[in-house]
Design goal:
Blueprint lengths: L1 E4 L22 E3 L23 E4 L2 E5 L17 E5 L2 E4 L17 H9 L4 E2 L2 H9 L15 H4 L18 E3 L10 E5 L15 E3 L8 E3 L1 E3 L16 E3 L4 H9 L10 E2 L5 H8 L9 E3 L3 E6 L2 E10 L3 E11 L2 E11 L6 E4 L6 E5 L8 E7 L3 E5 L2
Parallel strand pairs: 2-3, 8-11
Antiparallel strand pairs: 1-19, 3-6, 4-5, 6-12, 7-12, 8-9, 9-10, 13-16, 14-17, 15-20, 16-17, 17-18, 18-19, 20-21, 21-22, 22-23
């Protein structure tokens, strides 16, 4: 058996940054729910902020959460991307005190932040309001566009979101009013300027003691009735369950990945005959594992969901692949393993009591004919043959 394709750990490819629409000085600014100006390599500079300026964010739906496989994603905190409807609200254009001539107020607890907003007739924003204002009308990953702009950590006021809100995720962590049900700690959005690029994503969630104070921890206020919608919290489901995917869909997924694009004429093995063949080739002791050649859904940790597939490419080559489940019939390759001149069959050996790993095998119990598939937090998978 010759392995010509090892392990693949993917991130998502990002495009260019989006620009902000022209700004007019006013105490409150309204934005349409449609698209912002076209995507540019360098966003247009934001207009000079006006003291106590608020931005009207229209009601509508946006993509909350992140795509599995996104670099920096924490699947235990960030839900798989889905659409959520929010009502209209107003948000301060700048962090408190919302005055471009004054530095942000930091080193305050969450309760102190709530009181400061209340004294102005406002309130602390919910986390979904913060994320909506950050992602803009096009639900972009970063406030400034599709990719992280390092200058936004140095000059956060030069990086408006699609709704023209300034400084979101650039150089400050910000308190929000939302809670994680059943978990201790208060929620934060945004990241300090020293954080790695992926930490500045609009979907990134963090927790802290609500009594925490830090020089990089501030807040901003919102106005209007708070939106009741909450983030759909990732949950831990069944470890393994049978699933379905067509060879047409799988070929489309493979074609989109540079390391599997050459695989073609895909065929699945016959269930349960092929799985029984893999066991029968060896001593016959299953060692407490279940066997299948059918696609499997795998949930090794809360919020992490993968699809496991094995089959043939042509008549003589076999593959094992692990796919990120993006939703619907959308997947991306998380890891793959290709076996030249090995027709298989290749079966999965798994146990519901063992979440972080399973085996693949062409002859169960035969030396050199079995490998492992391992989950490595936060969202990586490796496939190997000892």
């Amino acid at each position: 058996m010759l392995c010509v394709r090892g392990v693949l750990l993917l991130g998502l490819c990002h495009g260019l940054a989006a620009c902000s629409p022209p700004h007019t000085n006013a105490s409150s600014r309204a934005h349409p729910s449609g698209s912002v100006a076209g995507v540019l390599s360098s966003p247009l500079p934001a207009a000079e902020p006006v003291p106590n300026e608020r931005v009207d964010v229209p009601g509508g739906s946006f993509n909350v959460g992140s795509r599995p496989g996104d670099v920096g994603r924490n699947p235990e905190l960030e839900p798989r991307q889905s659409s959520i409807e929010l009502g209209p609200f107003q948000i301060d254009r700048l962090p408190y005190p919302n005055d471009g001539k004054s530095p942000p107020l930091t080193s305050v607890t969450r309760d102190e932040a709530k009181r400061a907003c209340a004294e102005r007739g406002e309130r602390l924003c919910t986390e979904l309001e913060w994320e909506r204002a950050c992602k803009g009308p096009e639900s972009l990953p970063y406030a400034a566009g599709k990719i992280w702009q390092a200058r936004c950590a140095i000059e956060p006021l030069s990086c408006p979101s699609g709704f023209d809100v300034l400084g979101l995720g650039g150089s400050l962590r910000e308190w929000v009013a939302s809670e994680i049900p059943g978990k201790e700690g208060a929620l934060l959005r945004g990241a300090p300027g020293s954080a790695a690029g992926p930490e500045h994503r609009c979907a990134a969630r963090h927790t802290a003691d609500p009594m925490s104070k830090a020089e990089d921890l501030g807040f901003r206020c919102c106005k209007g009735a708070p939106n009741a919608a909450i983030v759909p919290e990732p949950k831990l489901g069944e470890t393994f369950s049978h699933a379905k995917i067509t060879t047409d869909v799988l070929e489309r997924v493979f074609k989109a990945d540079p390391h599997t694009k050459e695989l073609s004429s895909l065929k699945f093995y016959r269930e349960p005959d092929a799985a029984n063949t893999v066991v029968a080739r060896g001593p016959g002791d299953k060692k407490g594992f279940d066997f299948t050649v059918a696609p499997l859904l795998w949930q090794p940790a809360p919020g992490s969901e993968f699809m496991l597939v094995s089959g043939k490419s042509g008549d003589n080559d076999a593959f094992v692949a692990v796919l990120h489940v993006l939703g619907g019939d959308e997947y991306s390759v998380a890891a793959s393993f290709f076996m030249k001149s090995e027709p298989g069959p290749v079966a999965f050996a798994y146990s519901a009591s063992i979440r972080p790993r399973l085996h693949w095998s062409t002859c169960w119990g035969c030396p050199g004919e079995t490998g492992k598939i391992l989950f490595r937090p936060p969202e990586n998978v490796v496939i190997f043959q000892p």
